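Appendix B. Extra example for self-study. Work through it before the problem class; the solution is given directly after the inputs so you can check yourself.
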Amino acid sequence: MGLALPIYLDNHATTCVDPRVVDAMLPYFTAVYGNAASRQHEFGWRAEAAVGKARRQIASLIHAEEHEIIFTSGATESINLALKGIAEGYRGRGNHVVTVETEHQAVLGTCETLESAGFTVTRLPVDEAGQISTEALENAITEDTILVSVMAANNEIGTVLPLERIGRICRERNVLFHTDAAQAVGKIPMDVSSMHVELMSFTAHKMYGPKGIGALYIRKTSPRIALTPAIDGGGHEQGVRSGTLNVPGIVGFGEAAAIAGREMHAESARIAGLRDALVHGLLSALEDAELNGDREDRLAGNANIRFAGLRADKLLLALKDIAVSTGSACSSALPRPSHVLRAIGLSDEESMSSIRFGIGRFNTEEQIEYTIGRIADVVKTMRRTSPSHHHALS
Ligand SMILES: *Cc1c(COP(=O)(O)O)cnc(C)c1O
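Solution. Structure tokens for the complete assembly:
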């Protein structure tokens, strides 16, 4: 009756699909397999009705209207569509975009492409907690600014940014506001009205839904937000994103949103309790361990801890029974210092000694206790066997 190993503590990379979500999806593979765009028969109508229900469930979670939700393949696609689509659509009005140094690669990479296409990008710095200065944001906005893109919550250090204040600034300055909310939707309350966002990207697989389905919220305004589509075709999703809809994925995304809406409050309290136990346990067992990032404005499930003098990638090799990550899950085989940890002021060495823990819905107290014990043992053993590393950074 032991603990099942390995233990998954990498919930910022992706989450397990909730079994209730799987149950909701199953009929849409084999019984209700129609094309939601088939208007001439029952199979199509039933698929279309299921998509409509999911759209309402998702819209409701972020306090949007159902016709403001565009389905995509995930947050990366939504972000590309939002940033490139707005840049192209508003090229006549200006060529400047403002974002933040600690954004996800989906935003940073898209911004680099915009720069090669002649746009100017300002990347705002952050303080040691990962927060931007709203004054710096105000100063960065010029006559040429068409879009501000600031993430809702950081995927490495969990910092939650003050979207309401940022959104208000954008509204006052008449600049469109996009947020990458992949880590926030389903975890913390999100409200597109009070946050004054025009565009929001998010994804099902970070909130216990399936991979390969995401959404872009686009505020309905008059005149309409003129976003240039990236994928042309049959005119699905109001012509913004053509292609046959992923009906089972959308149904799962909808169910995941409904569950999050009902359970978010209690769940985040429970997860924060586990996270606090983990941080407290590790920091009291290991004198040279420290928490990176914001102590207050932080996602409930996030802990990013540095183990002074140790290489995090080597630590992970010795910890095969616990699934965590160093920095972000990048595709490179070589360990590189995280751009987020660098931006909050860590040296490359400190950054390479940091581990990201992502606690989620299916983690238990027992797993956290085991993790504290195991990591404390492994760190102590590594410090003993490589004394040159000990206190190397202190
Ligand atoms: C995971 C993630 C993305 C990318 O989402 P996909 O659906 O995997 O494309 C973008 N931004 C943040 C902050 C993320 O955590």
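Self-check: The chain has two domains: 7-14+264-384, 19-259. If your reasoning did not lead you there, revisit section 3.
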